[in-house]
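User: Here's a protein and a ligand (uracil). What would the complex look like?
Assistant: Let me lay out the input and then the predicted complex.
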Amino acid sequence: MRMVDLIEKKRDGGALTQEEINFWINGYTNGEIPDYQVSALLMAIFYQDMTDEEITLLTQAMANSGETIDLSEIAGVKVDKHSTGGVGDTTTLVLAPLVAACGVPVAKMSGRGLGHTGGTLDKLEAIPGFQVEISKEDFIQQVNDIKVAVIGQSGDLAPADKKLYALRDVTATVDSIPLIASSIMSKKIAAGADAIVLDVTTGEGAFMKNIEDAKRLASTMVRIGKLANRQTMAIISDMSEPLGEAIGNSLEIYEAIQALKGNGPKDLMELVYVLGSQMIVVGKKADNLDEARTMLKEKLASGEALELFKQMVARQGGDTSYVDQPEKLLTAQYKFEFLAEKSGHIQKIVANEIGIAAMLLGAGRQTKEDVIDPAVGLMLHKKVGDYVKVGDILVTIYANSKNVQETRKLLAENILIGEEFIEPVLIHDIITE
Ligand code: URA
Ligand code: CA
């Protein structure tokens, strides 16, 4: 088999066979096929697309390119949740212990943030001592003991995806639906859960800028999951404004603890309940979504979810005094207020630009090598639809430098105030096939 023939076939709109896809993925993973040929094939896929069958074969080949995690030693239906990314997305931190408190085991591997998006691992590491690198045995033991663990992705999970993603990043082939779908689902399938609940974000802060593309990505991933025998569903959620109020690592841990105490922002809690209900139904702990939602609310009100979060922090080496006294997380040296310059309703808070404003303070990475400052970030006091008067505090800037000019400029340009009342929409659709 020759790589050049695969490139030509795809260039002319053909569909690749299982043998051809395995030849490409195995050859690229072990270094026999060069970057330039794979680049050409990726660009051909970008233009010619792939059939569902090709995407499923590609996903399976990538999932099988390295280690696959066996969670069969954990009793019950293991449910994973994955978000395609956003700004201020504190969901996993609240959802994992809350769903676990309802009896569904959550064995979750999370990622780090890059660019304007945050990553759950960086947030958890804002708790002094918290370890995200844990052996597979300890991971499984922890989920068996307390039903919840959130750790970093094992280094050898889907190595084909790691190489392909780096190549896509520099060849303008990231935003291709078959390539995104196979990239995400290969990692989810290799990570071993029985069921997968996907949060496909759409809007300025997300990969998918419009709802139609988000739906196509969601239904592609749902079909791949089912073909791989994983119960899979997706919700399409809005990421045109940041989620919740906090953006930044310590600040989001603070927000998560408040949420677990019953004081979470409305949009964050709604997303937690929508995703959580789905996870509990697929995890077979409730018969329907209403029953599941009631269960989630009870476990939040009883304090059991907060207690599980604290147990998870303790098991993973974190200092639990930060859970008992979350004010200890607020250590930035300076706090600046950003005020409204006119009265009216908030029309827009452009998520990706606000994510960049937080990144510039040190809350995120511009390049993979950047070191994060856990203390810094933004706290939004108003959200889309709120009425504000001149001089109201819109945002508190948590900084470790007095030089916050760039952040202020981005806030001024990207929080739009006008006459009209805008009703924000959080959940656009639910995709089950
Ligand atoms: N997230 C992934 O893991 N892969 C993509 O291709 C895009 C988003
Ligand atoms: Ca948030």
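Summary: The chain has a mean pLDDT of 95.
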